[in-house]
Amino acid sequence: MTDKQKQKKEIIITGFGGQGIIMAGRILGRSAALGDRKESVFTQSYGPESRGGACSAQVIISEEPIRYPYVRHLDILICMSQTGYETFVGQMTQKTILLIEQDLVRPSLNKCDPFAIPATRMAEELGRKMMANIIMLGFCIAVTKVVSLNAALDSVAASVPKGTEEVNTRAFKKGFDYGLAILKGRDKKAVGRTGAV
Fold first, then answer.
1. I need a surface site. Which of 21, 40, 105, 181 has the fewest CB within 10 A?
2. Which residues contact 61 (CB under 8 A, 6 or more apart)?
């Protein structure tokens, strides 16, 4: 992998209509472009019907100008539905980071160890099921560091409906903290394995 490829991140967020997949992609792209001052491209795709149908968002973030707007080398795959997972799993490599909605996605692949979060359940606990996408976004940024925390928080506040900024920021932080806890747990396990050798 060249330095140029390392500076570029190609991301797919997938799920079904009504989960806020497109909004999550837009927030991610905006965070990179306006907050972190990087190049970013966002494209979206819907199934035959929007609510309930398959949909996906593709986001490319780069230090250099982006010449092709679609994902070719999948770095991060975020799945919020089983259908979405099955659609894009074939594009994964051993280096792809997989994040899943743990109550809705059952990965069948042994290529990697997915990062899982019960985003919908957590959103329901906050009283708004529709914020599962924001929780998943916070989780993604904690795990992958694909954009900076401040850029993401600013972008969330600027993108959500007026009057919901505070509750969405809380949802984002809930997902972010969950991601940090998962990383900490994995680090402890890794240290434990090393210590046992």
1. 181
2. 8, 9, 11, 28, 29, 32, 38, 39, 40, 146, 147
Instruction: Read off the amino acid at residue 67.
Output: R
Question: What domains sit in the chain, N to C, each tagged with a CATH number?
Answer: 3-196 (3.40.920.10)
| pLDDT (0 to 100) of residue 46 | 72
Largest CA distance in the chain: 54
Tens digits of residue pLDDT in 135-150 = 999 999 999 999 999 9
Hey, which residues does 117 pair with through a beta bridge?
101
Distance CA 75, CA 93 (A): 8
Q: For tokens 């490599």, what's the residue?
A: 93
Which candidate, 7, 11, 14, 47, places its Cα nearest to that of 29?
A: 11
